[in-house]
Amino acid sequence: MTDNPSVLSENIQMYLVHILRLGAKGQPVPLSQLAAALDVSPISVNQMCRKLQDEGLVTYIPYKGVSINPAGERLAARILRRHRLWEVFLVERLQMKWEDAHKTACRLEHDTPDEVIERLDAFLNRPRFNPQGEPIPTSAGEFASAIVSPLTEMKAGQRGCYVRCTADAATCDFLAAQGMRPGASLQVLAVALDSILVEVNGRRIALDRSVAATLQVEQEQKTEGAH
Q: In whole angstroms, how far apart are CA 188 and each of 8, 19, 149, 180?
């Protein structure tokens, strides 16, 4: 089986990406759930999963579901890399709404050559997260591990990388307009009983503690010998 997702049909690419997205902690994805996500018939899903298993990309267990194999996961991750880098470009550079960017990225992800994606990655300064705070896989199809915690767990003086907002869309959009976008570096300046003051890209933002609790941050780790 090829390591290049571009030679796979668009249909196979979509199946692999959805199986990867829907799978959780190694648990098989029920075929009914996969059929609903792809908006196709259960019979079509059954036939495709058997075909993907013959290709060595998934493991299909009747009455339980389908799990992606390492080879399939690498291919799916590379497709997701294309998708999420295009989302970053469309949202950050072309100022598109995320919903529209997502739909456009769904079309671009299938036909973009690897060399173009690598140039796009460099042009965007190698972002680690898409506009929704989802990790962008590496060119090798690997997901970088990120340990995130609520902003409210940080102390004054600590730095970190903003990953995602779990609040309602209006709050997330407001924060994004203030510069609080996935991948942005931030520092906690002060912590009060009901609010937290942070600095993001040179801008100071006062956050209500209830809002700060919805912000997921990857805290910067101190290097040995740092004081």
A: 46, 38, 14, 13
